[in-house]
Amino acid sequence: MTLDADWAERWIRRTADTVAGRRDELTELDRQIGDGDHGENLVRGFRAVVAKLDARDGQDGATEAAGPRLVGDVLKLTATTLMSTVGGASGPLYGTAFLRAAKVTGRESIDTRAVVAMLESALEGITVRGKATPGEKTMVDAWTPAVDAAAQAASEGGDEAAVLRAAAAAAAAGATATIPLVATKGRASYLGERSAGHEDPGARSTALLLGAAVEALAERSA
């Protein structure tokens, strides 16, 4: 399966569908240790991205720009839209992640090495923007094992699909592993010891996002 701009667009559309379907779950997780708006914010943000993709693809009367479609173009559009439409911490963090990822995927298709670089760049953007490190009960606790697993899968000769699957599985495990942690970063840190016993909503949405990247592999282009 070629990881091209069509795949990147399917990934974003699948993410929009996934967060919409899991909005209540994400909202409840955030209500337990945060502001309770994570689910709604992500739904609004990714719906806005899909609307822009539709317009760019001519489904709303617009004409697609001439020239080759690059993976990074899709990711950059996603980044700028999330930054302008999503409030709270998730918009800037995910927006920065996609913006950094776009900078290393400015090509018509990406190979295994570029997939790892994309994930590494996304994590770097999040850690720089959020100033978080592993163990603080944030989305970094899902992104870090995802990047490590992707790099390991690539070093073992895995193809692009294997690398993405490894990343998604590690992110899901990392999100679950945040449950016993005591938050020391972000709004959840205000709860101190009471934050233990709850899964971090940003880590969970990270797992959903990377899972959507895998699901997009099997979907056909519209």
CATH superfamily: DhaL domain
Q: In DSSP terms, counting alpha (H) and pi (I) runs of 4 or more, how many helices?
A: 9
**pLDDT average, as an integer?**
91
How many domains comprise the coordinates?
1
Gyration radius, to the nearest Å?
A: 17 Å
| Helix amount | 55-70%
Q: Can you walk through the features of this model?
A:
The chain has a two-stranded antiparallel sheet. The protein is mainly alpha-helical and 222 residues long. Helix 1 crosses helix 9 and helix 2 packs across helix 3. It has a single domain, classed as Alpha Horseshoe (Serine Threonine Protein Phosphatase 5, Tetratricopeptide repeat). It is globular, with a radius of gyration of 17 Å. The protein has 9 helices and 2 strands. About 3% of the residues have low confidence. The protein is 64% helix and 2% strand.
Characteristic key phrases:
globular; two-stranded antiparallel sheet; Serine Threonine Protein Phosphatase 5, Tetratricopeptide repeat; 2% strand; 222 residues; mainly alpha
Task: Briefly say what this structure is.
The chain is mainly alpha-helical. It contains 9 helices and 2 strands, in the order E-H-H-H-H-H-E-H-H-H-H. The longest helix has 19 residues, at 38-56.
Helices and strands in order:
Layout: E1 3-4, H1 5-21, H2 23-33, H3 38-56, H4 71-85, H5 90-103, E2 109-110, H6 112-130, H7 140-155, H8 160-176, H9 201-215
Antiparallel strand pairs: 1-2
Helix pairs in contact: 1-3, 1-4, 1-9, 2-3, 2-9, 3-4, 4-5, 5-6, 6-7, 6-8, 7-8, 7-9, 8-9
